[in-house]
Structures are given as C-alpha cells and as structure tokens.
Write a structure and sequence with these properties.
Length: about 290
C-alpha cells in the first residue's frame, strides 16, 4: 500500500481540512513579536547554491549570517521536514545543521533585550556531534549586553533526550528529561530574564528556576545565534547542533499562559506535529484561530 507524498513548501495542511487558511492565527497577533525566522519564507534567506549564508527576520529585517565562513552555512532543504497526517506525508522546507565542529552557525548582533520569550521548532538528529571538550550542543543562544546576560538551549550529547536552559555563570539551570518525542520533532518555549527562566517542551508544563544573583562576567556584543555558539574554536566549536530548524519566534517579555499555548499550538499545527503536544493541551485536537 502506497502513501501519498505532498510536497508543498508553504503547507498549512488546509488540504486535509485540519488547519483552515482563512482563520489561521498570525504570530504577530499574540504579544509583541520581535523576530520571526521561518524556513517557509524562502525569500528571507540568502543562499550560495544550497547553503544558507544569511537568514533575515521577517518582522524587523534583522539578519543572522555565516560571518563570511563557508563552513558555518547550514543547508536549505525544500523537502527536509517530513510529517504524516491522516495517512498523507507532507514534505516542507527546513534548514539542516550538520553538527560538525566549527560548522553551521548563523549569528548576528541582534538586541532583543534581557527579557524575552523564544519559541523554537526543531528536529534533532539521532546523535549529536562528537566534540571532545563539552557535552553541550546548542540549538540557539541569545546575549544581551545591557544586562551582561547569556542564555542558551542545550542538548546533552550523550543523552540527546535531555535538554537544558542555561544562563551565564548562574549556579542553577533547568534540566528536562524526555525533551524529544519519538519523532525527535519539538516545539520549545522558553522565557528568560535576569531574574530567572522557564522552559516548556511541546506544550507541557513549564519548568522554572529563579536566579539568586545577576550573572557574572561580561559580554561585549548583543547576539542571537542558531546552530551553536558564534565563536569558531575551542569549546565553542564543540557546541554545534545536529538537526533541522523549521521556525523561530522571539517575543518581548513574558507571554500569558493563554498566549503561550496559542503559539505552541500554532507552531505545532504549522509544522505537522500537533500529535506531539502534551495531553490536555488546548490545541492538541484543533489549531488556534485568528
């Protein structure tokens, strides 16, 4: 028995009657949206062959790039994000990060402020890179100079189901086991500020931690990076993420529970992974509407 494969780069699954186009939620209608990076927006990417040299935010036009290093370029795949709904297989675009040490990091001096919420849709590879100096792989990091703050999402290299949200020199971090379902496709939701942070996975309950003191050390440049840390050598070189990135949203401040769940639901349906949402999530059975 054959399975139909629908290659529709802008898929929102309207062909299945699941996510109606006319009433689809706009991420900009929820909270204060500072940035959106979506693999479905091919015009937002600058490419050299199949490699992405720069990715532009479609809200304010800020850009993250390879920094002029050919080895830092992820690959664009128009059909790399595959999911099955109601017996139909949909193939959609994504950026593929190979996890090679000193490779595949798009980064830019983006100033979102110290108090931000990030939603990150990714599929991790079955294994992460074999860097020798650290066990952390970093799908994304943000840096705010005004508060001397750095936060990053980390995947444990030896146990890729374990994820952490880590702050710069803070003695406490958030660790969440079982961070990826069997499909390895996940919607992460995090909020971080100098006061503390929280992390949610596929619409599950947030795991939160309060930081007892401001971070030590200093940072010299605002930064938002996808695929690893911006530095090219040493321990930073070992942090490169292996997997696929579909979409990233950055909001100002803390979203209400209702708004956070709307975005989680929107992204899960947009990328065909609503079945991964936690049991009891308000949008597990139907997408949020406008």
């Amino acid at each position: 028995m054959s399975v139909a494969i629908l290659k529709i780069p802008g898929a929102d699954f309207s062909g299945t009657g699941i996510a109606p186009v006319g009433n689809k939620l706009s991420p900009a209608s929820v909270g204060t949206l500072l940035a959106r990076f979506s693999a479905k927006e091919a015009a937002s990417m600058t490419m050299s062959g199949g490699a992405v040299t720069a990715w532009a935010d479609t809200v304010a036009g800020a850009t993250i790039s390879d920094g002029g290093r050919a080895g830092a370029r992820p690959t664009y795949s128009s059909t790399g994000w595959s999911t099955t709904i109601n017996g139909k297989t949909f193939e959609m675009p994504c950026l593929v990060f190979d996890g090679v040490v000193d490779g595949n990091t798009l980064s830019g001096a983006l100033d979102f402020g110290a108090d931000t919420s990030v939603f990150f849709v990714c599929e991790r590879s079955a294994t992460q890179n074999a860097g020798a100096n650290t066990t952390a792989r970093v799908p994304y990091r943000r840096v705010d100079v005004s508060s001397s703050m750095r936060t990053q999402l980390q995947i444990d290299a030896s146990d890729p189901s374990l994820v952490r949200l880590v702050g710069n020199s803070w003695p406490t971090e958030i660790s969440v086991a079982g961070g990826f379902p069997a499909s390895r496709k996940t919607v992460f939701a995090d909020h971080a500020s100098t006061a503390g942070a929280s992390l949610g996975i596929n619409g599950g309950a947030l795991t939160s931690v309060a930081f007892g003191s401001a971070p030590s050390g200093s940072v010299s440049t605002d930064e938002f990076s996808i695929g690893g840390l911006a530095s090219t050598g040493g321990i930073n070189g070992d942090t490169k993420f292996a997997g696929k990135v579909a979409e990233v949203l950055v909001y100002a401040g803390t979203l209400t529970t209702e708004d956070r769940q709307k975005i989680e639901g929107h992204l899960a349906w947009e990328w065909g992974i609503a079945a991964n949402l936690a049991a009891g999530h308000p949008y597990r059975s139907a997408p949020p509407s406008a």
